Amino acid sequence: MAAKKILNFGAGPAKLPQEVLQKVQRELIDYHGEGISILEMSHRSKTYAGINDGAQQKLRLLLNIPENFKILFLQGGGTGQFASVPLNLIGKTGKADYIVTGNWSRLAAKEAEQYGKVNYVLPETKTFIGPPPKDQWKFTPDASYVYICDNETVYGVEYPEVPDTNGVPLVADMSSNFLTRTIDFSKYGAIFAGAQKNVGPAGVTIVIIREDLLNNALPVCPTVLNYTIMARDNSLHNTPPVFSIYVMDLVFNWIKSQGGLKEMNRRSQVKSGLIYDTMIATKGFYSCPVNKSSRSRINIPFRIVPADVAKQAELEEKFLAGAEDLGMIQLKGHRSVGGIRASLYNAVGVEDVQALADYMTNFYETASK
Ligand SMILES: Cc1ncc(COP(=O)(O)O)c(C=O)c1O
Question: Where is the Aminotransferase class V domain positioned along the sequence (predicted)?
Answer without folding.
Answer: 6-356
